[in-house]
Structure formats: structure tokens, C-alpha cells
Amino acid sequence: MRRGGAVLLAAGIAVLGAGAVLTACGSPYPGSTLGQQVRSWATSTGLAGSLATLRGDARRVLAIEARHDPAALRTDCDVLVNDALGANQNLPTPDDALSGILTAAYGAAAAAGRDCIGVAGGDEALLARTASELTQATEGYVKAQARLDVLGATGPGRS
Prior knowledge:
Blueprint: H1 3-24, H2 34-45, H3 47-67, H4 70-88, H5 96-120, H6 125-151
Helix pairs in contact: 3-4, 3-5, 3-6, 4-5, 5-6
């Protein structure tokens, strides 16, 4: 190996080593434990509010569909999609497992919103799929809460 190549190799190793040190420093969220970091993330991103909003969106979609009001349903379906995509913008979390759970839940909520727009347009075949996706999303929110509990990341008022 030529001398210039050795210098480049040494520089590359130094850069990789520095990257490893920075990665080892951990999360940008305060706390010495993963639970503390997740709690900080959940607080700073408004996780509890996002989940409450998504649950409320789902209730409205189901209630309006039962009344057969296509215009109101279309509006609430759009709101559900937007809220799910907005919540997804706060990912990733400091915990990979929680990120995966929330990614799946938010994806199911967004899919339900897109499908329910078709229901509002008269495609009754999408109704069962919308309900199933809303159930998947709700189950994901429950799993996320359980993961927060396991990490000790919930405090007073829960996230």
C-alpha cells in the first residue's frame, strides 16, 4: 500500500471511530436511562395528545359512517390521515421497539383514513377494511402504552 493510501485509511478509521463515539453518546433526549429518554421524547413530542387525537378521529369516523353522512365522513377521513401523518413525523423514538409499534399504528390509522374516503364515495366494500385498520391502529396505541410502561417511561397522567 502506498503511503498516501495508508494516510487515507488512517483518516477513515479515525472518522469511523469518532462516529462510533458520537453514536455511543446516546439520544438527544435527556436522561441516563432509556426510559427517561423515552419519557422526555414523549413529553416533547406530545405523544399523549397525538394518541388522544387519533382515537378521537377514529370515533368520529365510525360515528359519522353510522349516520351515512358522506361529506362529513370525507372530512373526518382526511383529518384522520393528516393527524396520523403528523404523529408519524415525531418518529423515531429513542427506543426502536416503540418506534416500530408506533410506525405500524400510525400506518394503520392513515390507511383507514384513506380507505374511509372511498367509503364516503360509496364503496361499501372498503368499510370492513377501514374498521379493521382502525382496530389495528387502536391495538398499536395500546401496545405503545404497554411499551412505555415496560420502559418506566410513564409518569403522572401517563403518556
